[in-house]
């Protein structure tokens, strides 16, 4: 088995009476993005600070390639630290120096590069992060989003092997949020660094993560792939994930799973009371894993967002799209019978075929595979049963390719 | 009966606690104080030794000399001038009673060079730069800027504290010297220009009474005060996050207040101790 890059073994940390880490065990594999989720104030940032050595555990070990951090020689520790970068939740930019000086600081202090080379590297990172024209400004003169990007630029300017992100997108608008996710994902692909991200951006963060760990009451309650966490039967994990989704009315411009659930339940109630028909169409991007593999993890997210937006454009105003899981869009059609849903489904499939709706160029010979299944609401079906039935409607199953 | 025995026992325990508690508190405070002094000493030694680590941080040290030293010149000049002038006035009216007003130059110069110059310069720099140092480092601590330095493998002691220690060690003696000169001139203004002492006598007394030992004594004092002031102010700011009585902005305000109060009191204590050895 591959030796984990970082391992936390039975780590305990207490502040006063507050047990923040209570026997935490976590494995971080090389070259992957691991996302840590959990309640606010649950010790996620403390966990990150233990990994980078800003905090020492009361007991337990933190192993780096099998070597304990506390037993490392000074020189070894120094080499270890140089591989890391940390993006702070509150940016931690030096407010008395300019943006340029902030980004240049790690290079100026820790390398023997000439001024021109440092300036070149800084400008390159600033260009990549869309930070042109602000190099002589001070952090206090920037917006929250810009500060975040400056902090990212500072963290990435040394081309680190391991980057720890402490809520990198908190406080950003959806467009910037996706840009930051894309950047993390692109950089990870380009440089192959190992990323550890503390985030509340569920489900968007799952698209760029290979592993997800949930911290609950100081312990890792769940560790696995994003698909596994979505399917886990652990009620605490499920409640947390859905609870977070509920917090957002819209995720990346499309209404959330929770909003959808609420609306569909309302439609069921209307059907039961006033006999008004309604139908659902569930669109599933079948080859999301393949898309992520070939075009990068953000491609999967882009496909979902663009599919949702496109459906919203092609359908009447009364119909609404909701995100569901990592690869599904639910289209709710009020006052629509099964026959009408069938016709609409067919029409939409035709309209979308061959259109460049994804803003992505598929590889030659590679298509986005999307399936659509539909069903009409029934008085005796609950919300969950209706979703299940829609999924199982094999005879009403459409599959179309966008190549 | 049992209740009575129990009550008596409880009273005995209370009496014992009344005796032991103050001793316990005193012991705890003493241990805390000694530990704190040890931490401050280690903090200074580490910061001082890192001044000489390569590459030398010359530009940062110059920046700090400008902040601690150059920017304090005006306030030192004003304080020095008025201290000298008031010494001239007071000294004249005291000495004139004994017919010894000719000794005014010696009285002003010795008071300034031996005591008032180093002490008042230190106190003024505490107010102007020491408080700012504590606040700046304290804000850097609470906004995680010091943690950020650590994550970049930049030693915060070397980056933040060493240049300030070096700058204080250079600036304090120079500011003290300036204070002394301006003070002597202030004494000359009141003594000679206002009260009519012969300028030649005033300056001659200054020259003849001051010996090298007075100058070196004042110089050592200013160096010691530099160490005390910069260490306490940096230490208070650096460990703002460890304060239990206030967090965030409140923590920074408490750190700044503590830095000013502790370093001012320590300057006077160190002054007394050094004087008793140097005299």
Account of the protein in words:
- The complex is a heterodimer of chains A (403) and B (279).
- Chain A has 403 residues and is α+β, with helices and mostly antiparallel strands.
- Chain A has helices at residues 44-52, 74-82, 99-110, 115-128, 144-156, 174-191, 204-208, 226-231, 235-247, 257-274, 288-295, 297-314, 338-352, 383-392, and strands at residues 6-15, 18-28, 33-38, 59-64, 67-68, 84-87, 162-166, 194-198, 211-216, 219-224, 250-251, 254-255, 278-285, 320-324, 328-334, 368-376, 397-402.
- Chain A contains 14 helices and 17 strands.
- In chain A, β4 (59-64) and β5 (67-68) form a beta hairpin.
- In chain A, α3 packs across α4, α3 runs parallel beside α5 and α11 (288-295) crosses α12 (297-314).
- Chain A is globular and about 75 Å long.
- The two termini of chain A are 38 Å apart.
- Chain B is globular.
